Amino acid sequence: MMYRPDRGWGFSHKPGEPATPQEAVTELEDLRHRLAEVEAKLREDRSSQPESRVRAKSDLAERAEALVEKANVSTAETTLAGSRGSEQ
Predict the structure, then answer these.
(1) Looking at residues 54-76, what average pLDDT do you find?
(2) Helices (H), the chain
(3) Cα 87 to chain center, whole Å?
(4) Which residues are registered as beta bridge partners of 4?
(5) With contact defined as beta carbons under 8 Å apart, do 9 and 1 qualify?
(6) Are the CB atoms for 13 and 19 separated by under 8 Å?
(7) The pLDDT of residue 40
(8) How do residues 17-52 score in pLDDT, each as one tens digit?
């Protein structure tokens, strides 16, 4: 590695990064604690509202079925109308 006046030796402390290994360990422990809190909150939210999530999926499936049925009916009507025109 060569010294460059504009960059120095290439080693420097970047803002937002821990300066020492102890700071890095402390930051990691804090992040793990925050993650555990978020996961616990998610579990709590999911356990208190299981029915609403299931209902939302079934509502979506019903809407999708209705759209497919509507598309099939309009396709059948178009096909039927086309075949009547060719018979005349």
Answers:
(1) 72
(2) 21-48, 50-87
(3) 53
(4) 8
(5) yes
(6) yes
(7) 94
(8) 888 889 999 999 999 999 999 999 999 888 887 565
